[in-house]
Amino acid sequence: MTDSAPMPSLFAPAELGPITLRNRTIKAATFEGRSPGGLVTDDLVEFHRRIAAGGVGMTTVAYLAVAPDGRTDDGCVVLVPSAVAGLRR
C-alpha cells in the first residue's frame, strides 16, 4: 500500500452506502440457535439489540440457510418469504 493517509480510528463513524455506522466494529454472523422453525424470533431480535446497545457499529444477522434443506439445525433462520418480515425487524 503506497497511500500515506492515516487509517481512520476504529471508533470513528463509517459510511456503508446510505447508512452511517457509529463506529467501525462489526459483530460477525454466528449461529445463535434462537430461531426454531427457521423464523426470526423476539429472542433473536433482543439478542442483536443487546449487542448493538453494547456499542458495536453493526451486527450481522445469524447464520442463515438459503433453503430449508440447507439448514444444519432447526434453530437456523431459513431465507424464505415467511422469514422476510422478521428479518426486517
User: What share of the residues lie within helices?
Assistant: 10-25%
Strand content: 15-25%
Return the domain count.
1
Task: Determine Rg (CA atoms, Å).
Answer: 16 Å
Oligomer state equals single chain
The end-to-end span amounts to: 40 Å
- What can be said about the biggest beta sheet? 2 strands, antiparallel
The number of helices is 2
Listing every helix as H and every strand as E from the N terminus to the C terminus, the arrangement reads EEEHEEEH
Give the strand order, joined by hyphens, for the main sheet. Answer: 1-2
Count of DSSP strands = 6
Low-confidence spans: pLDDT under 50, at least 5 residues? none
Look at the structure and give the mean pLDDT.
Answer: 90
Judged by helices, strands and strand pairing, the structural class is alpha/beta
Overall, the morphology is elongated
